Every structure is written in C-alpha cells, then in structure tokens.
C-alpha cells in the first residue's frame, strides 16, 4: 500500500501494481504543510479521495478518516464513513483507535463498509502519546496491542495498520490474527507494508526517520528539472518554434 492524494500519483501507484492506495491524513503534512494531521477535515479527505478514485482503476482506495470525524460517536463514524464512500468513492475507510473503537467498527462493517484499523503509534493521538514514540516495547504494552488487534479482527476489520511498533511485537500481532497487518516502522514481519508516497520518493530531504527507505532521489530529480526549465526560459532556449503552433493562413 502507498498513499496518494491526487489522480496523477494514484494512477502511477495503480499502474505500478500496488494493492491499495491510502488517502492518508498525512496529507496534513505533505500537502498542507502542517506539523501533524490534526487540522485535516473530513471534507478535505473526501476531496482528495475523489481525486485519487478518478486516477485509480484497479487498486483498493482507502480513505483515512481524520481527527474528530469519527471519535465522537458511532453514528458520527457511520456518517463519515458513508460520506467517504458515497462522495469520495472510497472502497474502504481507515481509522485509528484501540479497544474503545471495536463496537464502532462492528456497526460500520455491518452497514457494508470495509474497515481498516490502525493501532500502535497513532498520529491523531500524538499529544496523548507524548510524541512519536515506538509502541509495544514491553511485554505489557505488547499484550495490550495484541488485544486491540484481536478485538478489531473480531469486530470485522479486514486489515490493521501497525505503525511504529517494536519488531517482535508486530510479529506476534501478525501471527496472532488471521487478517493482514500492514506495517509502517514496524519491521519486516507484517503481512504488508505501507509508506507515504512522497517519503518513498525522497521528495523531502529533511525527513529521514530510520524506518524510511527512499526509493528515489525525488527531491534532486524534481528540483533539477525545475532549475533546467527556469534556466532555459531565461536563456531563450525554451520554448522554440517546435513547442508552438503556426498560423494556418
Ligand atoms: O496518514 C497516513 O498516511 C497513514 C499511513 C502512514 C499509515 O496513516
């Protein structure tokens, strides 16, 4: 799974063969320039999900419900999930949570909406967690996370994102449930992996967490192309007649 927020990157991901495209609330950081995803609204996620859906032919599009669009009550979560599917054309929704969200997941799944759960490091609870801290580093924490994963599986979630979880714990969780786990910063033993598209493309030279592998020097590539464009325009080398249209008379 990779994230995308627009039709162009969705098409690239779809054609590259990913199974799922996540319209993550990470859009708050990589698209909107915020420090965390908390300011992202449901309308914004729906807008970006609609863009991604238009660019996707094959992969499952998952809409990430943003902070305070689903935590208030099960009916709020149901309405938000329904909007993500009807207006955003998502094929599934994702939300963060623990045991307290299991009953909500059950209701939403019963309404015919596939749910991906997200446990471990939960960026929407960043203030509660005291920062970006790796979860499941002790036996007690690991037991708590496994209980959450099992509760989500029993509630009908079709998969679970494991973010920022100690490798051994992520492995135990993956072995302890029968639905796929999708890791990010949780080591190699999850069923699947997810990365933010801009991160895997290396577009931000200042973002270098140890869990990230950059699969391209996107920053170098894009800035070099824009520099060349600027230089060629200033020097009168672009455009030439080849890039224009002649009169017909
Ligand atoms: O918002 C997001 O992009 C995510 C993934 C990193 C899992 O939640």
Account of the protein in words:
There is one protein chain. The protein has 249 residues and is α/β, with parallel strands linked by helices. It is built from ten helices and eight strands. An eight-stranded parallel beta sheet has the order 1-2-3-4-5-6-7-8. β3 (60-64), α4 (74-86) and β4 form a beta-alpha-beta unit. The termini are far apart. 3-methyl-2-oxobutanoic acid binds next to β6.
Can you give keywords for this protein?
alpha/beta, 8-stranded parallel sheet, 10 helices, 13% strand, globular, binds 3-methyl-2-oxobutanoic acid
Summarize the structure.
With 249 residues, the chain is α/β, with parallel strands linked by helices. It contains 10 helices and 8 strands.
